[in-house]
């Protein structure tokens, strides 16, 4: 197998890892909400979980399609808009995690 054949698969796996990482943060926030009894943290966990599902369910599929098409025609495989959206969702995840930490600490 050449690098051109395996690159789309590696790209999809990277996007899946990103989505799963965001979902893992949502799980940690959910646990924190249960342990500390904070409904605000539960709401933040829901936002983070939705972000992770968007990355996994929508962005990964679109990125896989664009990577396959680019590999088939030996064209440009970049997807700056998808990358910007994914980056924004990961930043949203981080902001929600920080906000949840503040909610728990300030009690």
Number of strands: 0
Hey, roughly how much beta strand do the residues contain? under 5%
Rg over alpha carbons:
17 Å
Order of helices and strands: HHH
As a percent range, the share of helical residues equals over 70%
Low-pLDDT runs of 5+ residues are none
Biggest pleated-sheet summary: none
SS element count, helices: 3
User: What class do helices, strands and sheet pairing give?
Assistant: mainly alpha
Shape: elongated
The first-to-last residue Cα distance is 56 Å
Number of domains: 1
> Mean pLDDT score, rounded?
90
Characterization of this structure:
With 107 residues, the chain is mainly alpha-helical. It has one domain (3-106). Helix content is 90%, strand content 0%. The chain contains 3 helices and no strands. The chain has helices at 3-36, 39-73, 80-106. Helix 1 packs parallel to helix 3. The longest helix is centred in the middle third of the chain and has 35 residues, at 39-73. It is elongated. The model has no long low-confidence stretch (mean pLDDT 90).
């Amino acid at each position: 197998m050449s690098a051109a054949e395996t690159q789309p698969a590696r790209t999809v796996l990277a996007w899946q890892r990103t989505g799963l990482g965001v979902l893992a943060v949502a799980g940690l926030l959910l646990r924190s909400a249960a342990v500390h009894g904070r409904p605000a943290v539960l709401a933040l966990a829901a936002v983070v979980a939705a972000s992770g599902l968007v990355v996994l369910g929508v962005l990964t599929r679109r990125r896989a399609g664009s990577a396959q098409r680019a590999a088939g025609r030996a064209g440009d495989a970049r997807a700056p808009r998808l990358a910007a959206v994914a980056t924004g969702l990961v930043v949203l995840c981080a902001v929600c995690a920080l906000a949840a930490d503040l909610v728990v600490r300030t009690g």
